[in-house]
């Protein structure tokens, strides 16, 4: 059913996708504002979010798999991260 919206050839409506994306962005923005306010009022932490980090909408199963793999494997790399206060440089490891 068209509802007067242009379709992309696959029966999908680009305007509806854009509206859904804006809604998701608005929800994330509101969440981050709320968490930041709570953290600043209830803890000594004032820098809550990583700088220059941007959320990404996961659009398909492959991207979901990649994100899950990253989340599962990334903590293991913390011991080798030069920003880790317990990091000791390992001469056999090249980051």
Write a structural description:
By secondary structure, this protein is mainly alpha-helical. It has one domain (14-80). Helices cover 44% and strands 0% of the residues. The chain contains two helices and no strands. It has helices spanning 14-42, 61-73. The mean pLDDT is 78.
Layout of secondary structure:
Layout: H1 14-42, H2 61-73
Short description:
With 95 residues, the protein is mostly helical. The protein has helices at residues 14-42, 61-73.
Any descriptors?
95 residues, mainly alpha, 2 helices
The rounded distance between the terminal residues' Cα atoms is 53 Å
Shape summary: flat
Q: Helical element count?
A: 2
| Total count of strands | 0
Give start-end ranges of low-pLDDT stretches: none
Summed up, the domain count is 1
Nearest-integer average pLDDT: 78
Helix content: 40-55%
Structural class: mainly alpha
Strand content: under 5%
Radius of gyration from CA coordinates: 20 Å
N to C succession of SSEs: HH
């Amino acid at each position: 059913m068209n509802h007067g919206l242009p379709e992309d050839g696959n029966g999908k409506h680009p305007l509806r996708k854009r509206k859904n994306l804006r809604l998701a962005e608005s929800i994330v923005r509101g969440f981050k504002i709320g968490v930041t306010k709570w953290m600043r009022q209830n803890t000594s932490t004032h820098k809550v979010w990583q700088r220059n980090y941007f959320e990404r909408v996961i659009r398909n199963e492959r991207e979901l798999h990649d994100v899950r793999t990253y989340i599962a494997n990334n903590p293991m790399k913390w011991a080798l991260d030069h920003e880790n206060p317990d990091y000791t440089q390992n001469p056999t490891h090249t980051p």
